[in-house]
Amino acid sequence: MSIAIAPPHSPLRAAPQRAVVSPFVVHVGIVGPGKVGSALLTQLRLAAPRLLRHCNLELRLRAVSDSRHMWLDCDDEALNGRTHGAQTWRPAELDEFAAYVAGDRGDPAVLADCSASDLVADRYAGWLAAGIHVVTPNKRAASGPLERWRRIGAAAGASGARLHYEGTVGAGLPVVHTLRDLLDTGDELVAIEGMLSGTLAWLFNRFDGALPFSALVREAHARGYTEPDPRDDLSGMDVARKLVILAREAGRSLSLEDVDVRGLVPDDLAGCSRGVFMENMHALDEPMANRLARAHAAGGVLRHVARLDGHRASVGVEAVDPDHAFAHARLTDNVIRFATRRYCDNALVVQGPGAGPEVTAAAVFTDLLRVAGAMGVKRCAC
């Protein structure tokens, strides 16, 4: 037997070449380029080189849609600048938008719904049935009509498409997935107790009697902590939606109508225009001062609290003891306490900033990466 020896400069002696592996492409569409959507666009653009370099993942932005327009085949810079340039602009049509994002090459597609729209939530079941994944901070789907929520779940189950909504409850905090991990590993939920509004947390952390409550609401409004109409925060309905989402995650068939919501807005100011409400917000001061005096007399502090105990759900202002976890929350902190069979003597607590477009967008981004990870994309170690 003879063995051929390659000459020194033979190609057989060339250094081995690493195989070039094509990146894993995920098509992305964003609905709602407002504060959260714009923050998400920025985060996607900044993270793209790292994800491609370390994870071989290409998140390919295909389109963006607001309530009136959709922009197709557009780059990040043009999107963030809200200029048309070489973009293809069309009137918004959500199903056409979703089909465009998905394309016809078979690459996975993810729609990030950063709106607060019921009309968009109505499309989830159809998108999921078509195999399009959805990630969202929009609370309307998971807290809306129970029958619609069941249709959404059935569509995801039938197609295998994923729906993630971590950003619906605690902005960037790992609230939904913490509860899901507890349940998936066989734990049993006993009760939930939470401060679920960054706006209301800030108000009651500041409200010590030195300033009228209405003055603090005006300051929070000026800082951008509240919704444009502060009644959207003061009513407690946003917190009620978050509580419903957690209850449903735990297997309770809870609806908004089942939550005892004790709002802070007097009945005669609930139905007027925003301008009239802002002019007459001083009507909140005396009732809130009386509540504060009663809390101080009992040695406690006021906090806005959501509770789920069995199938009983409530949202409202309560006096809590000074050694309670809620009494030590800071600024816009959300605090969620899960009492479970395992965590029965000392509840599991998730705490941190619960408001802000950047942290909410980061939760949506994390959900998008969870979708990619479920399809085999390696986790970045950087």
Overall shape: it is globular
Total discrete domains: 2
Percent strand equals: 15-25%
CATH superfamily of the largest domain: Dihydrodipicolinate Reductase, domain 2
Low-pLDDT segments, ≥5 res: 1-18, 82-87
Q: What's the end-to-end separation, in Å? A: 52 Å
Total number of beta strands: 13
**CATH class designation of the largest domain:** Alpha Beta
Stated plainly, the CATH topology of the largest domain is called Dihydrodipicolinate Reductase, domain 2
Strands of the largest sheet, in order across it? 4-3-2-1-5-6-7
Radius of gyration: 25 Å
Structure notes:
- The chain contains 17 helices and 13 strands.
- The protein is of the alpha/beta class and 382 residues long.
- The chain folds into 2 domains: 24-171 and 359-374, Rossmann fold; 176-354, Dihydrodipicolinate Reductase, domain 2 (2-Layer Sandwich), CATH 3.30.360.10.
- The strands form 2 sheets. The chain has a 7-stranded mixed beta sheet with strand order 4-3-2-1-5-6-7, with helices on both faces. Strands 9-11-10-8-12-13 form a 6-stranded mixed beta sheet.
- A hairpin with a 7-residue loop joins strand 12 (333-340) and strand 13.
- The longest helix has 21 residues, at 35-55.
